[in-house]
Design goal:
This protein is of the alpha/beta class. It has a single domain (7-334), classed as Uncharacterised protein PF12979, DUF3863 (TIM Barrel, Alpha-Beta Barrel). 36% of the residues lie in helices and 16% in strands. It has helices at 31-51, 65-71, 76-80, 82-90, 118-136, 152-160, 235-238, 242-247, 258-269, 289-303, 316-322, 328-334; strands spanning 7-15, 58-61, 94-99, 102-105, 110-114, 142-145, 165-166, 185-186, 219-220, 225-227, 249-251, 277-282, 311-313. Strands 1, 2, 3, 6, 7, 9, 12 and 13 form an 8-stranded parallel beta sheet that branches. A 3-stranded mixed beta sheet has the order 4-5-8. Helix 5 (118-136) packs parallel to helix 6.
Length: 335
């Protein structure tokens, strides 16, 4: 009898402040991240008991100009929690970047989400990558853009900066003008209806199209998504997430209502004989009791899932290896 294949599970944790339009005069602590550090320790123990293996997590840090403007330095979170990042390194976690293109408008004294200005997006990326290398002593290889935004020019820039794994895209999600109505913004969030649901190297002409012949460049590793019928959901919950209801597609956010989360996971695991899960979590979710309970319930459910013994909680690089998309030899060449 053949040994069941392992199922890679990537848990991407966006390490950021609780708010979005931050007050430049206040340097609030990142309470959600502090709680996430503690939560992760118990979670690793539960994973080890369920699978016999370690849990390697992915931490994507905010180091963009908004953080510099509010906290005085882009690497504030690493300076404040150096011991935690030393712990992550010892546990062989992946640490990458999570960037938002917030721009401070001094005239109106407010923030603008400036997706429409590619030069500003590039500046946000360049400054964040420089800060990351100074703070952690190595280049950044894993990346997640904020609000599921992406562009061809940005993918090219990420490749120039040495990124190997992008964890941004959400297949099936429709275009929207902005992630959070009521905020000032430029540009728009693209339509991802045609994005592959499996890891792929993107075409240089269109980042949403796979180029199977391309021998190099970054890997797009899409988040796990699924279509969930409205009748399966509680109205009081999905009413607050109208953008997902309108598209019919839901992304595997660990802070979702457990009914939604379980249906997404069930769909993804049943879709192919070689599945993988790519999950996302904002640290701010653990700062709010209601969403913290959802996170705890969803992760506890995964640890006791009937297929939990096959789950390998791992990084983007190891996911590609487990899915036999990259070999140890090719990974060594890139190291």
């Amino acid at each position: 009898m053949s040994t069941p294949t392992r199922i890679p599970v990537i848990l991407s944790i966006d390490v950021e402040p609780e708010g979005r339009f931050l007050d430049p005069g206040r340097r609030d602590s990142w309470l959600g991240f502090e709680r996430c550090i503690e939560f992760s320790r118990g979670f690793r123990n539960r994973v080890a008991a369920a699978t016999g293996g370690e849990a390697r997590l992915t931490w994507c840090l905010r180091m963009d100009p908004q953080i510099t403007e509010v906290y005085g330095t882009s690497d504030w979170i690493v300076r404040q929690h150096q011991a935690a990042f030393d712990e992550f390194e010892a546990l062989r976690d992946d640490v990458g970047l999570h960037t938002h293109p917030y721009r401070w408008d001094a005239v109106k004294e407010s923030w603008v989400i400036d997706h429409g200005d590619q030069a500003w997006v590039d500046q946000c990326l360049d400054s964040a990558f420089d800060a990351f290398e100074r703070a952690l002593g190595r280049p950044c290889r894993t990346f997640r853009f904020g609000d599921r935004w992406m562009s061809n020019a940005t993918v090219r820039r990420l490749e120039q900066l040495g990124v190997r794994h992008d964890l941004t895209l959400e297949p099936g999600q429709k275009a929207v003008s902005t992630y959070c109505p009521g905020e000032r913004f430029t540009g728009a969030i693209p339509d991802y209806s045609g994005v592959p649901t499996r890891p792929y190297r993107p075409s240089t002409a269109d980042y949403q199209t796979a180029d199977a012949a391309r021998p190099d460049g970054l890997w797009v590793i899409p988040l796990s998504t699924a279509r969930v019928r409205p009748r399966a959901l509680r109205w009081a919950y999905y009413r607050t997430l109208r953008r997902d209801l309108d598209s019919g597609t839901w992304t595997a956010l660990v802070s979702h209502d457990p009914t939604v989360f379980r249906r997404i996971v069930a769909d993804v695991l049943g879709r192919t004989s070689r599945p993988y899960l790519s999950l996302a979590l904002r640290t701010g979710a653990l700062a709010v009791p209601r969403t913290a309970r959802r996170v705890e319930a969803n992760l506890a459910w995964l640890v006791t899932h009937p297929m939990a013994g096959r789950f390998t909680w791992t990084t983007a690089a190891d996911t590609l290896r487990l899915l036999e998309l990259e070999t140890p030899a090719s990974l060594a060449v890139l190291a």
